[in-house]
Specification:
alpha/beta; Aspartate Aminotransferase, domain 1; seven-stranded mixed β-sheet; binds pyridoxal-5'-phosphate
């Protein structure tokens, strides 16, 4: 008797399927707007120079592969705390903060939703639309998914969001994306962030801020302004921080789970649950990526080199956004897509129907998910005029 014969077959992951189909497409003219990683002018996702150097230093200095402990690399955790809270945040000295190395941003998201469940949370709200792995993680932990309105007419929709969250109960969880919302590229303003923090506090919601694109919006310093403004009002918050994009460490699975609490007692209890959850899943966090990040951030020269590389990635994406936006405005004769320019990060969402995304793929070799999300960082500048011409037929 097979234990597995009666298992249902899950549908394939839509984005991974798209990548495979793109590679297999023999047409000379094809455009990959679906891929979820940063690409340079040559269409590559290279290892950053600062990472290469840090890796060499790390390997040269390493004398053991013994486990680092449940928090993983504590220097790394300290650097991410600096990024998220700022070096002088009083909660750090007061024991109201915890940080654990996690296997990527997803490992940190998993920690956060697991901790929500331990506190009695039954439902976790995600933005509509959001990155599909948010509801996936929530459901995998047996919790219900709620959806809140996020953007309207190309702008963040505070009223819509708080109206949908009006149906949330005290203790419900909320996943709120930090800078560079995936998939829309639309972010709350500083005032919106403050209002959201006050709203979460008032409603007793447990919020996790998902920071996967730090440094991709305006600058390393300014990108955390919203997150900090939110935390100042909300009092308590979880943070899932990913180094996959800003350090280009995707496969090294490098992330950090952080928590800001109202009381040191609460943080001390939460620490035991986060440690226990890590123990029961990956047991000990991976070391290599966190070691690279700690090496870079602990060395003034490497840090400056990394910041230059990060700034170059952001500048390139902003240039591509502006070029695509101008080309689409010219090709459609409508100003609607001028908003692409002011959006942040790797992604934006085009107002294209799921049926048209299929037609675009089949007829024109333009690959994008059914949601109409496009990866700006995947664009080749030379392709933009032709792409705008094709897309304008659907916009
Ligand atoms: C919104 C969002 N959150 C989190 C992540 C975390 O990714 P990783 O687990 O690879 O660090 C991603 C990556 O694509 C993302 O887009």
């Amino acid at each position: 008797m097979s234990h597995f014969a009666d298992l249902s077959t899950l549908p394939p992951d839509a984005l991974l399927g798209l990548m495979t189909a793109f590679r297999a497409d023999p047409r000379a003219e094809k455009f990959d707007l679906g891929v979820g990683v940063y690409k340079d002018l040559a269409g590559e996702t290279p290892i950053l120079t600062a990472v290469k150097k840090a890796e060499a230093m790390l390997i040269g200095a390493q004398s053991t592969k013994v486990y680092e402990g449940q928090r993983g690399n504590t220097d790394f955790c300290g650097h991410v705390e600096d990024f998220v809270f700022g070096p002088g945040h009083p909660a750090r000295a007061e024991g109201r903060v915890l940080s654990f190395t996690a296997p990527g941003g997803c490992g940190a998201l998993f920690q956060g939703v697991s901790l929500m469940r331990k506190t009695g949370t039954r439902r976790v709200w995600v933005s509509k639309p959001t990155w599909p792995n948010h509801p996936n993680v929530v459901r995998s932990l047996g919790l219900e998914v709620g959806e809140y309105a996020y953007a309207k007419d190309g702008a963040f929709d505070l009223a819509g969001m708080t109206a949908s969250l009006g149906a949330a109960e005290r203790g419900d969880g909320v996943i709120l994306q930090g800078p560079c919302h995936n998939p829309t590229g639309i972010d709350p303003s500083a005032d919106d962030w403050r209002a959201l923090g006050a709203f979460a506090w008032e409603k007793g919601l447990l919020v996790m801020l998902d920071v996967a694109y730090h440094g991709f919006a305006q600058s390393l310093d300014r990108d955390m302004d919203g997150v900090r403004a939110f935390m100042a009002e909300a009092g308590e918050a979880m943070v899932a921080y990913s180094c996959s994009k800003n350090f280009g460490l995707y496969r090294e699975r490098t992330g950090c789970f952080l928590l800001l609490g109202e009381t040191a007692e609460g943080i001390s209890a939460a620490t035991t649950h986060v440690a226990d959850n890590g123990r029961a899943t990956w047991s000990m966090p991976p070391a290599h990526g966190a070691g690279i990040v700690a090496t870079i951030l602990g060395d003034a020269v490497l840090r400056a080199e990394w910041e230059t590389e990060l700034n170059a990635m952001r500048t390139r994406m902003k240039g591509l956004r502006a070029d695509l936006s101008d080309a689409l405005v010219a090709a459609t004769g409508s100003n609607e897509l001028a908003a692409l320019k002011s959006q942040n990060g790797m992604f934006s969402q085009l107002p294209i129907t799921p049926a048209h995304t299929i037609e675009l793929r089949e007829k024109h070799g333009v690959y994008m998910p059914a949601s109409g999300r496009i990866n700006i960082a995947g664009l080749n500048p030379g392709d933009i005029p032709r792409l705008a011409e094709i897309l304008s037929g659907y916009l």
